[in-house]
Design goal:
mainly alpha
Length: 318
């Protein structure tokens, strides 16, 4: 009953969102740090062992609890467990408040405050950015955050739940994304440096895991947005040998919203790399596009919920 789990988790996330410093995330950071400290010896094999333990053990534990509840207690508690795990894996409100604050500042014509808020959110130097560049960057970062914290989690949860694996997909996706980002941050901060092999393995695993969810996000945006332009952006990006999942999502988003998304001059922005060459033919981002983005995201969420409801109903009828 993945539909019930998803619906309950989304409602709970809206009613009582988890903060960034919540105990679940703190425990996750401690666990991932423990795995790297004890298994990262600098060799590729050690890197895979650390990644497998950091990601695989919590995912397997979530699955075992789900199976135990299903067999020994009953499906209702198993569904509740799936919903709670999904709730802990989602992060809709963890990025939306950044978006809201910046949008409100732009609506009040306070571009200086919007630059400051965006700089605090993404740790970038935004002082020389124009209003259009700020709006475009907010759209890019918000789309990628929605993909990683909402649609990617829902995609992997739904696929593996359909195979009888409960909430395993949500845990797998969330931890795969977290370890790739966390170990890179540790290496840059040099407080607890991670080896190059560990970082490389984590990035490789994340690229392949995110590949499925990125394409499902693109299809969702295409269905609820400008379908032809979104698919054309996907096709053009692939034709340019674009293999970055973030670039694929952004190329399709630019088409779905019919706006121009591209790199800000002087900023090394991999999230903007590889967008379609004809993006300059589209209108530049404006304040009204932020409302369009909100509608696009919410329509995609509703589409996911309705699709899961229909699949659940089909299984019950069959």
């Amino acid at each position: 009953m993945s539909f019930i789990s998803v619906l309950f988790a989304l409602l709970l996330d809206q009613a009582r969102p988890l903060g960034r410093g919540n105990p679940i995330h703190a425990a996750m950071r401690s666990w991932v740090g423990y795995c790297s400290r004890n298994l990262d010896a600098g060799k590729p094999l050690h890197g895979w062992l650390a990644w497998g333990l950091a990601v695989g053990l919590p995912s397997g534990l979530a699955l075992l609890i789900y199976w135990a509840l299903t067999l020994w207690v009953g499906p209702p508690l198993a569904v509740l467990w799936s919903a709670l795990v999904l709730y802990a894996s989602l992060g809709f409100r963890q990025f939306s408040f950044h978006f809201t604050e910046i949008r409100d500042a732009l609506a009040n014509d306070d571009d200086a405050l919007a630059r400051s808020l965006l700089a605090q959110w993404q740790h970038l130097d935004t002082q020389s950015w124009s209003r259009s560049e700020i709006i475009g960057r907010v759209i890019e970062f918000s789309v990628l955050a929605a993909h990683r914290h909402v649609f990617g989690v829902l995609a992997w949860f739904s696929v593996l739940a359909a195979l009888g694996l409960g909430p395993t997909g949500a845990v797998l996706y969330r931890l795969a994304e977290f370890v790739a980002r966390y170990w890179q941050h540790k290496s840059q901060a040099m407080a607890q440096p991670a080896s190059q092999a560990l970082q490389s393995n984590a990035k490789t695993a994340w690229h392949w895991i995110d590949g499925l969810s990125a394409r499902m996000t693109v299809l969702g945006f295409a269905v609820v947005g400008n379908f032809e332009e979104a698919i054309d952006g996907w096709r053009r990006y692939a034709a340019q040998s674009g293999t970055d999942n973030d670039g694929l999502v952004l190329a399709a988003t630019a088409g779905a919203m019919n706006i121009q998304l591209g790199p800000v001059p002087g900023v090394n922005a991999p999230t903007s790399a590889g967008l379609a060459a004809d993006a300059s033919q589209r209108p530049a981002p404006e304040l009204a596009h932020l409302a369009i983005l909100v509608g696009l995201v919410w329509r995609a969420v509703v589409m996911w919920v309705v699709l899961l409801a229909l699949l659940t109903l089909a299984r019950l009828i069959a």
